[in-house]
Amino acid sequence: MGQMIAVVAETKRGIVRKATLEALAEARRLAGEAGGSVAAILIGAAGASEASRLAQHSADRVVQVEGAALAAYAPEAYAEAVKAAVEMLKPEALFFSATAQGKDLAPRVAARLRVGLAPDCVGFAWESGALTARRPIYAGKAFAKVAWNAARPMVASIRPNSFAPLQPDASRQAGVEAIALGDVKVRARVTGTEKSAGEMLDLTEATVIVSGGRAMQGPENFELLRKLCSVLGATLGASRAAVDAGWIDHSYQVGQTGKVVNPTLYFAVGISGAIQHIAGMSSSRTIVAINKDKDAPIFKLATYGVVGDLYQVVPALTEELARVMKE
Amino acid sequence: MLLTWGFSVNILVFVKQVPDTETRIQIQNGAVDTASVKWVANPYDEYAIEEALRIRERLGPGKVTVLSLGPDRVKEAIKYALSLGADEGVHLKGEGVALDDPLSVATVLAAAARKAGFDLILTGKHAVDHDCGATGVMLAELLDVAHVSVVVGLEIDGAAKGGTAKREVEGGTESVTFELPAVVTAQKGLNEPRYASLKGIMAVKKKVIPEWTLADLGVDAASVAPAGAALRTLEVTPPPPRAAGKMLEGEPADTARELVRLLREEAKVI
After folding, report:
1. How crowded is the C-beta side of B8, counted as CA atoms within 13 Å?
2. Closest by Cα among B31, B143, B211, B87 to A76
3. Closest A-chain CA to B184
4. How many CB pairs under 8 A join A and B?
5. pLDDT at position A45, please?
6. CATH T-level fold of B9-228
7. Closest Cα in chain B, distance from residue A287 (Å)
8. Distance from B221 to chain A by nearest Cα, in Å?
9. Model pTM greater than 0.80?
10. Which of A189-198, A306-315, B76-85 comes out lowest in average pLDDT?
11. A208-326 in CATH: which number?
12. Structural domain boundaries of chain B?
């Protein structure tokens, strides 16, 4: 049957997340090159619609693990669920999404199976029959090519926004193979979630980000950026200088000691471009820098650099975007 | 004196020494050139150290032991933690260990944790060099204890031998209840790390930092050696170069219009 790549699906409010569909797309490409197949592992109760969504996004087989211990996320129970599916499928490779849950679960699973884990990968290739992965290190200041030893499966987590999901193929179907999970020892479990203010997409998943830096001068001026965000459907970010000044919460920080982001469009507003900030956003596809200092290091990285006063440029830009978006 | 724990609590903090985040990473012959690097304690490990000290201060009596795996230079990271108030430090000799494979590293750390004994293990959510974010969680699995990762809030209940934590997830936080012993990995926001006091810095001079080798830990050297490591690094390369950008100057309204046009027609991102 060739080599199988299994993808651990992640659901949010019962719906398979986009990051899972991205992982499936890359799994399909790799399986196609090796004459192999793709399987999806669904954990916990999820409707039949989600199993068929996975099939339509190229899963040849869908394994669903259900059990009382899987009602809420608990790493030990979920790891046991993945292990049960792995024992059934015996895949060559096992992919997670490098989301908050995937980053928490993948190391548990890899350690339980005593196999290698390549975290936060952005590319894969078969080289002489062996899989290699490419992953940013030093927050993107360098890239490492890594490979696994002979133990299987090879476990990897995939950075969100690294691959485009496939168009769903409505003609594709896969029967759901069920596994019932018995009692599991669980010593840590999620008891609740709290949303942070605002219903914005998380920075690590955002496709458009507007970040403000030291030149924002205070918390009140971030309102300018919030307006720009709402016109663009963008997520707000910040540099360490702005966070350390106390103008905005650390959860907004982009950089080596904050979030490493991978959007299609990144606005660096009033950010000079310290190494540790650049490390966190340099893989953005298009970078716009707005800064009044034409020698600011951020301009070396910018696809488009606007030399000017952000307090004039940002409102003008917001207005122009609002006009264009309405057309 | 009321003992909250009913026993003396044993907290371990695993600290990694990494290049300072302001360091420019130079690559030579497919590997990072560390010759001119300024080494510091991993920033996320600083939150772990601080949290350990606060737990000991709040719920003591107890002992905070800082352990670091690597070459002799990591003693500096241990001394730094001691100067902040950690009680003891242990240098885990890293020669012959696949330091770029989280499973190999976790295997050594797990053996060290068993030797030291522990009620709670704290470490950073990830190290800012290899950016794996896997070692802490793997350590918990190998020790067969609970873990909570990427924690921004932590309450330990010594009497109940458990705790609650808030961990950062997309767009918010999750509350997690857990049993001790456990591994907790620290995220920025958990606390504000203190600075070393002069007294602390002076006290370090008198401390002896024992060295534990793989043999001391009972770890089979071949099982954690680079040759057979679960994951190995084949090559390190610089990031792909970016094409030179366009600079826009002039009246804000004009540059805004030109920028929007470029984003739509050239970059095709809006």
Report:
1. 6
2. B143
3. A188
4. 282
5. 84
6. Rossmann fold (3.40.50)
7. 9
8. 16
9. yes
10. A189-198
11. 3.40.50.1220
12. 9-228, 246-270
